[in-house]
Amino acid sequence: MTDRAIETRNLTKRYGDETAVDRLNLAIPEASVYGFLGPNGAGKTTTMRMLTTLTTPSDGTGTVAGADITDRDAVVSNIGYLPEDPPLHGELTGREQLRYIAGLRDLPEADAEDRIDDLLDRFSLSGDADKRISAYSKGMKQKVGIIQAMLHDPDVLFLDEPTSGLDPRAARTVRDTIASLADGDATVFLSTHILPVVDELADTIGVLYDGQLVTEGAPDHLKSRAESGDERTLEDVFLEVTGGIGDNGDERPASTEEA
Ligand SMILES: Nc1ncnc2c1ncn2[C@@H]1O[C@H](COP(=O)(O)OP(=O)(O)OP(=O)(O)O)[C@@H](O)[C@H]1O
């Protein structure tokens, strides 16, 4: 594995005439949390789908955990992905679903059982683990989705709105889990519209607008006004760098990108 958990060079995805992701360059170090922000339709999910090999780039290159994103088998064994709608089998119980994923991942059975028990307990799901997923609430399904994404202790974890539908305690558990993963040697690529979550957790924030990375930097760097030294909120930054662009996209927003 290289010292970059995720690296892309001019990564591009076009759908017909529309460019969903436009020459994206990322260099995300290992053991860090990258907060990926952007308005609806900016290209965040498309980026994550390319990085997790679920869709093929139209142009450009990328590596994740040292593996080329065109090499699906090499990438998939090193990553976990929580998409917006986690793929779950409603007819299975939560525990059966997790055993099924552990089997797909070839995890040794005894280790998998211990890890499943531990994670179910961590997310307060032990009491419901033997009920069918079809009877789960949205938040309970989200918890199973998070657990299955991290079951094999991946090097790089992609999370799309991980706290969606979760009660405050579960959301806190997710935030603590992300922080402790990055305290180890995992890298977390976190896409969310909940700005305080990225503000708290991210080492670096990147903002995507209309398929392009319009700003990138540490939260404190982005929030400090260079001229006055005053603090502003991440919401101010987000609105500033994603505002003031016409529909034809010909006017670039103000960039706070680090030199
Ligand atoms: N399969 C597809 N076919 C055609 N266009 C697509 C497809 N997937 C995404 N797009 C387009 O690509 C652009 C980026 O979409 P994407 O889902 O990546 O945005 P996003 O930043 O994840 O948005 P949100 O925050 O709303 O989830 C949008 O204009 C969308 O319509």
Average predicted local confidence, pLDDT: 90
Strand order in the largest sheet = 6-7-8-3-9-10
The kinds of small molecule bound in this structure are: adenosine-5'-triphosphate
What is the global morphology? globular
Low-confidence stretches: 245-259
Name given to the CATH homologous superfamily of the largest domain: P-loop containing nucleotide triphosphate hydrolases
- Output the radius of gyration: 19 Å
Number of helices in the DSSP assignment: 9
Return the string of H and E elements: EEEHEEHEHHHEHEHEEHH
User: Main sheet, how many strands, which sense, barrel?
Assistant: 6 strands, mixed
| Number of structural units classed as domains | 2
C-alpha termini separation? 27 Å
CATH second-level architecture of the largest domain: 3-Layer(aba) Sandwich
CATH class of the largest domain: Alpha Beta
Please report which band the strand proportion falls in: under 5%, 5-15%, 15-25%, 25-35%, 35-45% or over 45%: 15-25%
Number of strands: 10
Helicity, in percent?
25-40%
The assigned structural class equals: alpha/beta
Q: Kindly identify the CATH topology of the largest domain.
A: Rossmann fold
Protein name: ATP-binding cassette domain-containing protein
InterPro entries: AAA+_ATPase (IPR003593), ABC_transporter-like_ATP-bd (IPR003439), ABC_transporter-like_CS (IPR017871), ABC_Transporter_VariousFunc (IPR051782), P-loop_NTPase (IPR027417)
Keywords: ATP-binding, Nucleotide-binding, Transport
Organism: Halobacterium bonnevillei
